[in-house]
Design brief:
about 475 residues, mainly alpha, Ammonium transporter fold, two-stranded antiparallel sheet, two-stranded antiparallel ribbon
Length: about 475
């Protein structure tokens, strides 16, 4: 009896001990698993944040590309002004986007039209019990910096179209407005959860959001500021320095690897990022080759300036669909962009609109084309139902609606902004400035002082140099 009792007591104790060990062992395992999962999550966030910052730095470097490209494409007497305007686009855009634009783009939505919170980045951090709280996940400051670099790009596009004749005060005003309000509204529609996002509109990195908006704004500005004196339509002024222009185009191409792959906002899916990088490359190559051959068939010359714009046309065109199309489709988009950019310049010239660097042809026309191309060539397995790949017509209709809406919004904003500037005499430089050149008048400087001196100055070798009148 006693032996049996002791046996059962021992058996019960062993059972209890086993249960305790199992319970605590499982808890330890759960705790270890949770700790490992937390560490993995933290590492992933760090990697993604690092990727976003690196690509944002690359996008910001595109300001240098725009500066070099524009400086090389225009005439000598406006280069200092061009460089100053491109530089200030970044500075003005940074303040305007921080204060107003980012909140409009990504703040809490008001009817899907614009954001209404996070102005001055008020929501990016807080202070609690003597400590700084940044929130969970990727910092709002990291995301702001990435989006600021995009905003600066959108504001710069108009600078090239209106080069050599825009009043600098007018330039400051319109840069603040486009980066602070006009551009961010479209960002909210598409990337901020607005009404176009709800419709299923696709624009991975900004063919419409950045480039079409910038291109339409540039076109309105070029129309309202008027042509440069002595401008002969059908025979555009020759670029004054193709070395600078080529360097600018290559810097922009490099920056596009931040623009497009960076828009994945992380490296969690390296296959997607790789696809985006390859599509970006193929479209740029196809655009440049197509433009080169197309212009050669028309003129019998291997034209460098047009080839540079052809590569940019391919880059702009693929920016919307780089994550939604197969590589062969990116080549098709580049081919179409390479031809369209030349034909679009012909149309702009026939309308007697002086777009100094072909900004609308590159950014406006090819931005619209690339966005709509998703509706035809979008790969269903990549989240885009292209009409030619069995996806039906819905995606195409949505893409067209987005292009039209963004164009109308930007055109109305441009007419209002440039119309007001024109009415107060701050859109175009005065006749005297155009006679001596905008660099001499507004900046008292010349980009080549040993070749193109200012009126009354002498060069280092003692020969007096006077800046020629614009158009000479």
């Amino acid at each position: 009896m006693n032996m049996g009792s002791r046996f059962w007591r021992r058996l019960l104790a062993m059972a209890i001990a086993s249960a305790v060990l199992v319970i605590f062992g499982v808890n330890v395992t759960f705790a270890q698993d949770a700790d490992i999962a937390g560490q993995i999550s933290a590492v992933q966030i760090s990697v993604d944040a690092t990727w976003i910052l690196i690509t944002a730095f690359m996008v910001f470097f595109m300001q240098a590309g725009f500066s070099f490209l524009e400086a090389g494409m225009i005439r000598q007497t406006g280069v200092v002004n061009s460089l100053m305007e491109n530089f200030m686009d970044a500075c003005l855009g940074g303040i305007s986007f921080w204060a107003i634009g980012y909140g409009i783009a990504f703040g809490a939505s008001a009817g899907g039209f614009l954001g209404t919170t996070n102005f001055f980045l008020n929501d990016a951090m807080s202070f609690s019990d003597g400590a700084v709280v940044y929130g969970e996940g990727i910092s709002g400051f990291v995301l702001f910096f990435f989006q600021f670099a995009f905003a600066a790009t959108a504001g710069t596009i108009a600078t090239g179209a209106m080069a050599e004749r825009t009043d600098f005060i007018g330039k400051i005003i319109y840069s603040l407005i486009i980066t602070g309000f006009i551009y961010p509204v479209v960002v909210h529609w598409v990337w901020g959860g607005g009404w176009l996002f709800e419709r299923g509109f696709l624009d991975f990195a900004g063919s419409t959001v950045v480039h079409l908006v910038g291109g339409v704004f540039a076109l309105v500005g070029a129309m309202m500021v008027g042509p440069r004196p002595g401008r002969v339509f059908g025979k555009a002024p020759k670029p004054h320095n193709l070395a600078l222009a080529t360097l600018g185009a290559l810097v922009l191409w490099f920056g596009w690897y931040g623009f497009n792959p960076g828009s994945a906002l992380g490296m969690g899916n390296n296959g997607l990022v790789g696809l985006v990088a390859v599509n970006t490359t193929l479209a740029a190559c196809a655009g440049a080759i197509t433009t080169m051959l197309f212009v050669y068939m028309r003129t019998g010359k291997w034209d460098l300036a047009n080839s540079l714009n052809g590569s940019l046309a391919g880059l702009v065109g693929i920016t919307a669909g780089c994550a939604f199309v197969a590589p062969w489709a990116s080549v098709v988009i580049g081919l179409i962009g390479g031809i369209l950019v030349v034909l679009a310049v012909d149309v702009i010239e026939s309308l007697k609109i002086d777009d100094a660097v072909g900004a609308f042809a590159v950014h406006g026309v090819c931005g619209a084309m690339g966005t709509i191309a998703i509706g035809f060539l979008g790969q269903p397995e990549l989240g885009a139902g292209g009409l030619l790949l069995g996806g039906g017509i819905d995606q195409l209709v949505t893409q067209i609606i987005g292009v039209v809406a963004a164009s109308i919004w930007t055109a109305i904003g441009g007419v209002l902004v440039f119309g007001i500037l024109k009415s107060i005499g701050k859109l175009r430089i005065p006749a005297k400035a155009e006679a001596i050149g905008i660099d001499a008048y507004e900046h008292g400087a010349t980009v080549w002082p040993d070749v193109l001196g200012l009126a009354g100055e002498t060069t280092e070798v003692g020969a007096p140099k006077t800046a020629p009148a614009v158009g000479d």
